[in-house]
């Protein structure tokens, strides 16, 4: 697509990385500042009219609201804002699949600060997207070309 790509893991503060490396799951207090920083990146790219893909484990509905609306979405419980702070238009891609498949992929990952042992905590935290959120669900059991085609089709359909 020629879009700019960001991996949210690259923006975790050192304290978060250390905590995960030690096998301690992150909580809301750990994640919210990180998500606000990611929102700022998305806002900057949107302002410069740059289409962007962000790989991010936005596990909870509240986390997705922060990505859309920034820190103010926490207090208001709503991503919708007007004027200069209008909500970003984001299509969330929920990569869904059995824990054993995802665990197998995590086991093959090298040099990452999050150990596979934290996978269960992510499943425990997960609130899959639901209406009225703007999302698609894609099965990780599909082949990579099928996954990419499904995502690209959804993006191009608007």
UniProtKB/TrEMBL annotation:
CDD domains (alphabetical): GntK
Protein's UniProt keywords contain ATP-binding: yes
GO CC annotations, alphabetized: cytoplasm
Highest rank taxon of the organism: Eukaryota
Entry EC number(s): 2.7.1.12
Gene Ontology biological-process annotations: carbohydrate metabolic process
InterPro entries given in the database record: P-loop_NTPase (IPR027417), Therm_gnt_kin (IPR006001)
Recorded GO MF terms: ATP binding; gluconokinase activity
Reaction catalysed by this enzyme: D-gluconate + ATP = 6-phospho-D-gluconate + ADP + H(+)
Keywords of the record: ATP-binding, Kinase, Nucleotide-binding, Transferase
Pathway assignment: Carbohydrate acid metabolism; D-gluconate degradation
Family matches, as PANTHER family: GLUCONOKINASE-RELATED (PTHR43442:SF3)
Family: Belongs to the gluconokinase GntK/GntV family.
Protein name (database record): Gluconokinase
Organism (species): Loxia leucoptera
């Amino acid at each position: 697509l020629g879009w700019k790509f960001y991996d949210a893991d690259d923006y975790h503060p050192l304290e978060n990385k250390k905590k995960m490396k030690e096998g301690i799951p992150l909580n809301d207090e750990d994640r919210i500042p990180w998500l606000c920083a990611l929102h700022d990146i998305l806002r900057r790219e949107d302002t410069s009219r740059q289409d962007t893909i962000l790989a991010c484990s936005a596990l909870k509905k509240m986390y997705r609201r922060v990505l859309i609306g920034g820190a103010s979405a926490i207090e208001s419980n709503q991503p919708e804002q007007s004027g200069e702070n209008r909500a970003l238009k984001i299509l969330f891609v929920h990569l869904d699949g059995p824990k054993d498949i995802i665990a197998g992929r995590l086991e093959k990952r090298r040099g990452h600060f999050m150990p596979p042992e934290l996978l269960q905590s992510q499943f425990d935290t997960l609130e899959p997207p639901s209406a009225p959120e703007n999302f698609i669900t894609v099965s990780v059991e599909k082949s990579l070309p099928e996954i990419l085609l499904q995502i690209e089709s959804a993006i191009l359909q608007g």
